[in-house]
Amino acid sequence: MDAPTPQQPAYTIHFTPTADDSRRAAVLGSTTKRSSLVLMYFCLSALGVMLILFPGRADVIVGATLALIGAFLIYGLFYPRAGSVSRQQWRPDVGTFTFEEQGITVATRFSWRSIRWEGITEIRSDKRSILFMRGPAIATWLPRSAFDTQAESDAVIAFARAHIAAPKATAASPT
């Protein structure tokens, strides 16, 4: 991570993500959605089990079918699907994240994009990933392994949180 100077951006981070970094970020980003889906699928499975245990007007086959469908859907939430990226298919590209007063710039060999702070609604982080959210979607993410120390990643998170709070405070104040 480069240190800031008056003419330079606040933080510049260079990293090469791995397939595991990408998977971890996706899991962190889908935590809320996944929890609600697990609950819904669990209820479907429980309904199926109830139909099996207490066959009244309903058919035991329908209960077993519902229980199996719910179980397979829960399994599918926690394990990679055939279409997910495997380690052998992963083609990493060196990424450069630049954190500035206006927002985040993400540049790779093939792409470049800028995300203004107004476009970031939340920052999620755990011990492996930092996610910049736009509503329920991931706007961009950064693995913690891109930083040399925990203090550096904490400084970037604090900088970003201060900047996403500033546009909200400006928009909320009466003019």
Overview of this structure, please?
- The protein is of the alpha+beta class and 175 residues long.
- It has 2 domains: 11-17 and 92-172, PH-domain like (Roll), CATH 2.30.29; 31-78.
- It has 4 helices and 7 strands.
- The protein has a 4-stranded antiparallel beta sheet, with helices on one face. The protein has a 3-stranded antiparallel beta sheet with strand order 5-6-7, with helices on both faces.
- Strand 2 and strand 3 (103-107) form a beta hairpin.
- Helix 2 (31-53) runs antiparallel to helix 3.
- The longest helix has 23 residues, at 31-53.
- The model has no long low-confidence stretch (mean pLDDT 75).
Instruction: Please state the structural category.
Output: alpha+beta
Report on the biggest sheet. Answer: 4 strands, antiparallel
In total, the number of domains comes to 2
- Strand arrangement across the biggest beta sheet: 1-2-3-4
The arrangement of helices and strands along the chain is EHHHEEEEEEH
> What is the overall shape?
elongated
Approximate strand percentage: 15-25%
CATH topology-level fold name of the largest domain: PH-domain like
Rg over CA atoms: 22 Å
Unreliable spans: none
> What's the level 1 CATH class of the largest domain?
Mainly Beta
Number of helices: 4
- Tell me the distance between the termini: 39 Å
Number of strands: 7
State mean pLDDT (0 to 100 scale).
75
CATH architecture of the largest domain: Roll
* Percent helix range: 40-55%
